[in-house]
Amino acid sequence: NKVEKGEVTWKSPSNIALVKYWGKKENQIPANPSVSFTLKNCKTTTKMEFQKKPEPSATFDFELYFEGKKKEDFKPKIQQFFERIEQYAPFLKDYKLTIDTENSFPHSSGIASSASGMSALALCVMSLEKELNPELSTLAEITNEAFFYRKASFLARLGSGSACRSLEGELIEWGEHKNIPGSSDLFGIKYPFEIDEVFKSFQDTILLVDKGQKQVSSSVGHKLMHGHPFAEERFAQAHSNLDKLKQVFASGNLEEFIAIVESEALTLHAMMMSSNPYFILMKPNTLEIINKIWEFRESTKTPICFTLDAGANVHLLYPEKHKEKVLEFIKNELVAYCEKGQYICDQVGKGAEKL
Ligand code: PMV
């Protein structure tokens, strides 16, 4: 092919799951479907320069820079990603790649950058594919653009499961579900039903309770669901919570929303506490914050709730119209439980952008 060299840059966000993905099969196939809000401010920007190799070779040749500095320790993860996607992107070995990446959120904030990072990289790979083959889609029933995003999400999934939910906004579903048309284990889709306006500007303030390295990597975590005594019940519950959320998303019923989202977060942690080996990923301050949130909700009737990832940080979710009041509450009551008083204000976003 004719393309000798060039560069492409994508900026892609993180996402926060409402129904959690926890447990996977071979080839990054999720054990249960999940749904997430795409975020707006927590983003990874990745530039990929490509230069055709003089001779074809059998290796992936790439250099990696993180915030301007060469980063050898991230290389194995990227090497593994390229190996997994090779059969879908065979042209990668024809090019020497220079990958330059940076995050909008503070380094080692305890915020996983795998969803934003892997989705940005997958989009760069797709942009290279598109340069090589502008008539990307060979399927008559699907437009070039839809094909582009679908394949990018498919590739991102192979980098990190939840990354396949980061490309578009505002609500993304991933994993086969009998009542969600178009749903697939292979890629994320835009949630296909009506969603109330309140969710399109939902706020997510991330309270940084523990900025340290994760105690359990998510790949180890997913494996703990193999042979887990409650696995089958949990997977069934995720399906049923997705069913319940359909009504909630359409109606904007925040009471129901809160009940499902908080239960999902606690169930995720309950799975880790009841696996073999077992883990407690919450910290004392995680529980302090949760109790404060409950008190505030009870006493002010403000519809705020929490969710958690596989770590100690707390995501505080609430409608935009309560922003002022909630930020005041955070400053007065929650900041004291955050490491170095740090938190990140984010909200629902529209997905990745090509720069
Ligand atoms: O994408 P992974 O393999 O890092 O798994 C992420 C899993 C959770 O963040 C805990 C839940 C989710 O659905 O995002």
TrEMBL record:
The keyword Lipid biosynthesis applies. One of its GO terms (molecular function) is ATP binding. Residues 206-336 form the Mvd1 C-terminal domain. Pfam families: MDD_C (PF18376), MVD-like_N (PF22700). It comes from the Bacteria. Residues 13-179 form the Diphosphomevalonate decarboxylase-like N-terminal domain. SUPFAM superfamilies: GHMP Kinase, C-terminal domain, Ribosomal protein S5 domain 2-like. Its EC number is 4.1.1.33. Signal peptide: none annotated. InterPro entries: GHMP_kinase_C_sf, Mev_decarb, Mev_diP_decarb, MVD-like_N, Mvd1_C, Ribosomal_Su5_D2-typ_SF, Ribsml_uS5_D2-typ_fold_subgr. The keyword Kinase does not apply. One of its GO terms (biological process) is isopentenyl diphosphate biosynthetic process, mevalonate pathway. Keywords: ATP-binding, Lipid biosynthesis, Lipid metabolism, Lyase, Nucleotide-binding. One of its GO terms (cellular component) is cytosol. Belongs to the diphosphomevalonate decarboxylase family. PANTHER family: DIPHOSPHOMEVALONATE DECARBOXYLASE (PTHR10977:SF3). This is diphosphomevalonate decarboxylase. It comes from Salegentibacter holothuriorum.
